[in-house]
Amino acid sequence: MRKIAYCLLTIILATSNVFSQADSVGPLNVIEIRHYKQQEGQRQNFIDYFEEHFIDTQEEEGMAILGQLRVIDKPNETVWVRAFENMQSRLRGLKGFYFGPVWAKYAPPMAQMHAGIKNAYLLKPLGNIDELTKGHRAQDMALTLASGTISAVTGVVAIDFYYTKPGELSNFTKFFEERLKPAITEQGHETLGYFISELATNDFQMPVVQDENLLVVISMYPSQEIYQQKKDEFYASEPWVSQLHDAAQAMLSKEVETLLLQPTLRSPLRYWDKKKAADQETAVK
Question: Phi/psi at 172 (nearest 5 deg)?
Answer without folding.
Answer: -70, -35
